[in-house]
Amino acid sequence: MSDARVTFLGVRHHSPACAGLVRRTIRELRPAYVLVEGPADMNDRIGELLLGHELPIAVFSHYRGTERVATSWAPLCAYSPEWVALTEGRTAGAEVRFIDLPAWHRAFTDRPDGAANRYADAEARYSRATERLRARYRVDTVDALWDRVFEIADPDGLQDRLDAYFALVRGDTEADDGDRAREQYMASWIRAAVAHAGSRPVLVVTGGFHQPALRALTAAPGTSAGAAPAAWPPVPVPPDGAAGGSFLVPYSFRQMDAFAGYQSGMPSPGYYQHLWDEGPDAAAKALRRTVVERLRARGLPASTAALISAHTLTEGLAALRGHPRPARVDVLDGLAAALITDDLDQPLPWNTDGPLRPGAHPAVVETVVACTGDRTGHLHPDTPLPPLVHHVTAEEIRLGLDGDRTLDLDLTNPRGLERSRFLHQLRILGIPGHTRLTGPDHGADPRDHETWEPRPRTGRDAALTEAGAYGARPDEAATALLARRLRDTGTAADAGTTAALLFDAVLCGAGTLSRDLLDGLAHRIRTTADPGPLGRALAVVLGLWRHDRVFGTARDPLLGTVLDHAVDRLFHLVEGLHGGPPGVDVPRLRALAAARDALLHAVPALTLTPETAAATAARIARDRHAPADLRGAALGLRRALGALAEPAGEAEAFAVAADPSVLGDWLAGLLALAREEVLRPAPKGEQSLLDTLDGVVTTMTDDVFLHALPALRQAFAFFPPRERERVAQLLLDRRNLHGSARTLLRTTADPLLLARAAALEEHTDLLLDRHALGAPR
């Protein structure tokens, strides 16, 4: 269908130059149809899109089925070519249509790059051509190249330059399956529009990457205007059992900014809004003024002389680079040269690809924020919203949660528990409003009160609309989102991650999901090979089994089964553990501590008896090939389970621990499992753990003691200050000495000297790390 009545405009999303070209073309062409790249399932709601919102806004699309969940956003601002095509087309009397597949379609969700934004610019994936162009024009980024060739260039001949640019970008590169499906669908809309338009023109506005393919598809033999189908292409609908659709949500310039992580379109939306409204010179002036105002408001140096210097440097850079007017990078480089006198640890963000990096210079940060702008969109009051928005509003009123006050909830009270579950559902869904300050953090946490503090509700409407993709009620939506997270983790999720999801489900009151999570957790426990995640899961499940009368999970049989599997699996893993890097494996020690608590408090749910566990611990404690911290923990576990001391076996374990190179690791394991036992006096006729430790230390020579001292200090850090004082008192009593135990915990050294020593030690560590001379961690 090679037809002069069809005009193709290939554009870059959020480009003022392209938006201006679309506006001029519509006013000159007066087309019968304006076809725009956008979700076709919004065609019946074009009127809703044009109600009179405050831009930016976005079309939020969602899909939820048994096999997958998908969401995406299509932002629109005043200078988006798509928005200008819609508004100018309607003003010109044209029929306006979106012609792309719905954004929940597999053509988007199965993309190899996994893009969550439907406006994923093609040059990010087809960069070889743009790399050649960047070298030709001697610019650092695609954005600088675009500004040079399009945004600040003479608008005459703009369409020809765009066609040449996108033909080069597309080249002969093979599009992926998703792009091919989308382009074939858009071509079917173009053919139908030509058939309906008769002799009147048709304008097609799409991303420039698709334009060459659409030209080819609609110029294929056998698809002339006379043979084109009269019916409009059908709009795909979600299959049975799945839900999908689109809603409008408010958006912000910060969400659109590439420096904040947005992967499509143009960076610095605040700057380009000025460019669209007033032109390049006014945009440069506005940016300089905004940067200086922000720097002064934060007490950073920004003199009038610096502002004049920035203007002069900008003009000089533009002339040197052959720019007819100052480009965005000219303005930014001029500001940086005038305002920053320090050495920079990283390149300026506008001269590299990607978001702003942590640790950037304060003046750079303020410059980027000024480029972003602070504009936030608002929807027209008549905009339809998903049911979840109305349900949450009604529930907040019913539960008395619609105010801005701190909430203290008693979880033992039915109304307090109901309010808590509702707030946790909103937390899971990411709805701004309240943040929990205190409350149970894991299954073993016995707290039965929660404190929630009000927070700014910025972005709440958009978050509620997006959360509406998961259900009409907050409990249903939170359950669906947690189920999605469980599916997304798949077999890669460890037992600890699954246990955290389980605790979130309990806090939300998602009983059915909790059953599913427990089944998944049992499977992960049986297959895990890492004691650390297994220990996190064990701690959560044990706490829920022991304490959670508030949430109704105490003594739950399925929890007991998972608990039994976890303890068995943990002992199977640690008994065969040999070698490994030196040092203390804290997650492994926490796992053994969780197993200790299960053996002390959940015996009815376990197949493994405390006696069998103590015997296994004794074997590990004497195993010279086991890690030192694990050997110490095994001895501590045996004592914590109340097993009688075995003088010969424990003497062998302590003899190995006397080596100063492993003493600290060994003691850390011991104290992690048996801190209370160290403080407890031994029964008559037996030797306490503290007595045995004291014997090991007092037999050391001075050189050995000095070698072991750092490790001893690290190990005893497991004791809080009050318990360290108790240890000191027991040592005094053991020697029949009188005096203050507290004085043993103090030093007579000059505090300033100690502070300087600590600073020197930290500096030395940094130097060693910088030059890769430090010991393996």
Please, could you describe this protein's structure?
The chain is an alpha/beta fold. The chain has a 4-stranded parallel β-sheet with strand order 1-6-2-5, with helices on both faces. Strand 3 and strand 4 form a beta hairpin. The protein is globular and about 105 Å long. Residues 120-125 and 222-228 have low confidence and may be disordered.
Whole-number average pLDDT? 82
Q: Into which percentage range does the β-strand content fall?
A: 5-15%
Tell me the total number of β-strands. Answer: 10
Q: Which ranges are low-confidence, i.e. pLDDT below 50, for 5 or more consecutive residues?
A: 120-125, 222-228
| Radius of gyration using CA atoms only | 34 Å
Which structural category fits the helices and strands? alpha/beta
Count of individual helical segments: 32
The percent range for helix content is 40-55%
How far the N terminus sits from the C terminus, by CA atoms, comes to 67 Å
The gross shape turns out to be globular
Oligomer designation: single chain
**Strands in their spatial order, largest beta sheet:** 1-6-2-5
Query: Largest sheet, if any?
Result: 4 strands, parallel
